[in-house]
Specification:
The strands form 2 sheets. Strands 2, 4, 5, 6, 9, 10 and 11 form a 7-stranded mixed beta sheet that branches. The chain has a 4-stranded antiparallel beta sheet with strand order 1-3-8-7, with no helix packed on it. It starts with a strand and ends with a strand. By secondary structure, it is mostly beta strands. The radius of gyration is 13 Å and the shape is globular.
């Protein structure tokens, strides 16, 4: 059974940094892509970025491009979301998700497995 467990959320001041982790288990993920999504109160879940587990290719939403970086550690089966220059509008619950495909998809419905989410709060 696939399990995704996020960690690393918290409270940070605007301009600060956080690194989220997503530990994956229960599957061989070499054929998967991993996505990061976020959902703020009263808003729809939105795509933040994704990484192809095999190639390491990444893709980001325009709103985070240049500030956020996704990476993976194959040995640890863990994907990271490094968030720099955080803004109050980045405040949300952040989720990692897994999709059984080489292709990164921006739609949440394309992902098969989800973590429980971790709260990120950026104060102004």
């Amino acid at each position: 059974q696939v399990q995704l467990v996020e960690s690393g959320g918290g409270l940070v001041q605007a301009g600060g940094s956080l690194r989220l982790s997503c530990a994956a288990s229960g599957q061989t993920f070499s054929n998967y892509t991993m996505g990061w999504f976020r959902q703020a109160p009263g808003k729809e879940r939105e795509f933040v970025g994704g990484i192809s587990w095999s190639s390491g290719n990444t893709y980001y939403a325009d709103s985070v491009k240049g500030r956020f970086t996704i990476s993976r550690d194959n040995a640890k089966n863990t994907v990271y979301l490094q968030m720099n220059s955080l803004k109050p509008e980045d405040t949300a619950v952040y989720y990692c998700a897994a999709r059984g495909s080489y292709v990164i998809n921006v739609r949440s419905s394309a992902y098969d497995y989800w973590g429980q989410g971790t709260q990120v709060t950026v104060s102004s």
